[in-house]
Amino acid sequence: MSYRNESPLVVDNTSTAERLASAVVGLGLVTFTFSLVGVAQIVTAETKILGIGLYDFLAVGLLLMGVGTVTLGVGSRSGVFNTSPDVTPGLVTSALFGVGAFSIAGFVASQFLGFGTGGWLFVAAPVGGVTFAGVALATEDIGSTLPPGVAAIGVAALVLSGILTPEFAWEPTGFSATLTGSMAIPLALSVSTLVTMWAGAKAYEGYGSKGRQTAAYLLIGINAVSIIAVLVALLLFIASKGVGPAFQGFSLVPFEWPFVTNGYSFRPEVVNGVFPAIMGTIWLVIGAVITGVPVAVAAAIFLTEYAEQGRFVGAVEIATNGLWSTPSVVYGLFGYAFLIPRLGGSTSLISGMLVLGFMLMPLCLITSREAIKAVPDEYRDASAALGVSRWETIRSVVLPAAMPGILTGVILGVGRIAGETAPILLVMAGGLRDDAPNVLGSFEFTSVPPFVANDALLESAPALPYQLYATITAGVSAENATEFGWATAFILLVVVLSFYAIGIASRIYFRRRLNA
Fold first, then answer.
1. What would the pLDDT profile of 280-304 be if each residue is shown by its tens digit?
2. What is the 3-state secondary structure (H, E, C) of 439-501?
3. Is 266 helix (H, G, I), strand (E, B) or coil?
4. Sign of the alpha-carbon torsion through 412, 415, 417, 422
5. Nearest-angstrom CA–CA distance, 196 and 251
6. What's phi and psi for 114, nearest 5 deg?
7. Integer Cα distance of 130 and 125 in angstroms
8. Does residue 475 come out as left (phi exceeding 0), alpha (psi in the -120 to 50 range) or beta?
9. 52-53 and 48-49 beta bridge pairing
10. Strand (E) or helix (H) holding 327
């Protein structure tokens, strides 16, 4: 009977807190979105929303979020809202708020209050220490909501009171740079909004482990969506700049696409194109895949299925991870110093293929090993029980099951090497007027080892990344350098995305075969 009498009260109180927390998070999503758009200068201070200036509108939203967050914390502590907070927010939360308070206090003391290099520490250290101790000693509801709520109210007050305006300009001491209000305001609003949303998400679930999990999921989700949004914005920006020049003279009947089918001729009456560079890029990627992927997959099979898991394998893993993190220009220097003297003494297509193949090997080896190790041992045991040899088991059972993972590594690797510029600049640089490499038509059989010759592989060839670099740095002409550069960037993007599409289609095909 007592449970029935208490249940409606608990449900009503919890629903009120949930509605308030949902309003904080929902308002935060809107404020955070517009703040990020403001950082990118897509919208400016002159933009009006509901008749209010952009920054004032966002500041009002942040102010309401701050008030709502403080209300959630105080209401939980006073028993108005039915919650189950922990005894403390935790050392991690306390440390983060303490570091934030230390940074803000040090910034204000050193840049606006005139304290010297060491003087600001006497202000920042006590503020950071008191904030850390206060949050650590408070209960989770107060420690998680009051600091972000007060900070949100403070930032909103700075904007609404006119202290922080678009005309604000700050020149950091010791730096030759200026931070303007049009950049500082959206940054401050977005950071404050993000932290306040985190507090609202914790309050929505009544704090505790479930509240921390929900808040973490919210931050991860916002981060993922932001990354996707930045990627989409980048693609749209390049497309908006490059589509027009790239499709100049395009027609379907008869099919003509001069920018893709022509080379660069320096003739004003002809639409200059990037066909040789497209073919050079395609041959580069094909050659890198042929030289790098089989070796990487073979090494992964040996290390996973045959080699004893000991110090040798551990050393190989460390070396592989180091090679993958090595800057691309180092690979280019290696090719310039080691490959070029042994391959005719000049830049060549084969040198570019080998260098990019070396760059592709570490990632393919890492992902192939993980994909092979992910194949259940039951598959191997079942095959061995039927009397199948180890190699036949690997070839017929393990590799088909691991193929989607192997292709994932190949896709990621190809996406990296297709846009590399530094190695190509050193080992394969081709000019704007070079012809497309005729690799297939240049093969000749000889009577001496290696019994085949190909002049096209030993000559320099153009490539889209290097051609884009040359266009930006030197320009191709005074009139069309900018348009030609944006069009080249657009075509490079299309080529790279085409490689991605081929790889993803192959992965889907093998997955369907595996599940059939």
1. 999 999 999 999 999 999 999 999 9
2. CHHHEEECCCCCCEEEHHHHCCCCCHHHHHHHHHHCCCCCCCHHHHHHHHHHHHHHHHHHHHH
3. coil
4. negative
5. 53
6. 80, 15
7. 8
8. left
9. antiparallel
10. none
